Amino acid sequence: MLHSPAAAAAAMEEQLQHPPPPPPPLLLLLNASSSGPFPSSWPSNSSSPAGSAWEAAPVATSAAAEGGGGGAVSPWDIALCATGTAMACENALVLAVLFYTPSLRAPMFLLIGSLALADLLAGLGLIVNFTLQYLLPPPPHAALALGAAGLLLTAFSASLCSLLAITVDRYLSLYNALTYHSERTLTFTCALLLLMWLLCLGVGLLPLLGWNCLRDPATCSVLKPVTKDNAAVLAVTFLLLFALMLQLYLQICRIAFRHAQQIAVQHQFIATAQATSTRKGLSTLSLILGTFAVCWMPFAIYSLVADSSYPAVYTYSLALPATCNSLINPVIYAFRNPDIQKSLWLACCGCIPATFSSRPRTSSDV
Predict the structure, then answer these.
(1) pTM, two decimal places
(2) CA-CA distance, 334 to 103, in Å (whole number)?
(3) Rounded-to-integer distance, Cα 246 and Cα 250, Å
(4) Residue 168, CA distances (Å) to 156, 160, 163, 172, 218 in order
């Protein structure tokens, strides 16, 4: 039916004077969260292609129009970003102490430096992931998300491998106590660390090389864009690594106990020395393995059995303690070392307290 120009103009003026009401804020929030602007390596609540993070639909919010990520910021992501920032600062301090202290060049300190570097990169990876998810304007590039996921995979893989390397180093220092310092040269240790980092870099490149769920969201694991098969392989590898560390530390305790018993016999104070060494070794062993298991074991088992259809809150609540392991590592492996403590005192205060006792590492220091 045709209308006269006057009637059409009147209808248009009426429409401009009375625009349709905006959609409810809750609907805007749901739209923003279901079609996030970034294909995050952390979980989303939907596993269907329509709600996947790979389809970044336009978000009808002023935040997205101004260049923000759009949608509400998850408290879990804030916690992960804050943890990553603390990890980066703490491990940067360890690396600075090792770098600027010429006396800390032994193979043991190279391994501690490798662990600190891996945990530093893991913290930076969490910060980069938060930045890509919430601070960069849409639409995102898939390569950025895959790069962030690759950085996290490389960093956490190197962190776990460094922990295993430290365990092996401690075992060899007790098992071959007489020839350890002549066999463990800096060149040999550097070569092993280079090989380890190349292997971890290969693990991190897997998503960029095509082992991701970008084209098939149904194959996503609890951490997008890592596939379920990739996550299962990593989880099984972690469980094997933990079993090996447990076996090595049990052997370390057995050797340390035998050494302490021999020293006690020579100095004729069997009961005191044996009890002290055993208690110290068991407490250190419990601290190392207990922290490692509590932080990583639940997340590894969950990654093995779950997929992207599981609620995201489960993944977040288990991934956060796993990342906190990198926050605790400097306390266990670096700040408890007398040589590093001495360097920290000198760097911060310019002096060493009178009560500070710098003693060499013994067999009881598991």
Answers:
(1) 0.76
(2) 15
(3) 6
(4) 19, 13, 9, 6, 40
Number of domains in the chain: 1
Q: Which residues contact 357 (CB under 8 A, 6 or more apart)?
A: 338
* Count of residues making up the chain: 366
For 234, the token pair is 């990593």
Q: Kindly tell me if the per-residue pLDDT of 155 is higher than 70.
A: yes
Between the two ends of the chain, the Cα-to-Cα distance in Å is 90
Contacts of 74-79 with C-beta under 8 Å, sequence gap 24+, read 74/316, 76/42, 76/312, 76/313, 76/316, 76/317, 76/320, 77/42, 77/130, 77/133, 77/134, 78/130, 79/320
165: domain CATH number?
Answer: 1.20.1070.10
How many beta carbons lie within 10 A of that of residue 353, not counting itself?
Answer: 9
For 163, phi then psi, to 5°, come to -60, -40
Q: How far apart are CA 344 and CA 164, in angstroms?
A: 26
Confirm whether 43 is domain-assigned: no
Ramachandran category for residue 168: left, alpha or beta (phi over 0 → left; psi -120 to 50 → alpha): alpha
Q: Please list, in sequence order, all residues whose beta carbon lies within 8 angstroms of the beta carbon of residue 362, skipping any fewer than 6 positions away.
A: none
342: exposed, middle or buried (Cβ count in 10 Å: 0-12, 13-18, 19+) = middle
The residue assigned the tokens 């996921």 is 149
Q: Kindly state whether residue 174 falls inside one of the protein's structural domains.
A: yes
CA 94 to chain CA centroid, nearest Å: 17
54 occurs within a structural domain = no
Is 245 contained in some domain?
yes
Sign of CA dihedral 343, 345, 349, 354: negative
Q: How far apart are CA 218 and CA 203, in angstroms?
A: 22
Domain holding 82, by residue range, is 70-349
pLDDT of residue 176: 78
**Token pair of 1 as six digits:** 């039916």
Confidence at residue 17, expressed as pLDDT on a 0 to 100 scale: 60
Q: Which residue has the tokens 């057995």?
A: 254
With CA atoms as reference, report the closest residue to 337 among 116, 142, 183.
116
Q: How far apart are CA 250 and CA 294, in angstroms?
A: 18
pLDDT band at residue 229, thresholds of 50, 70 and 90? confident
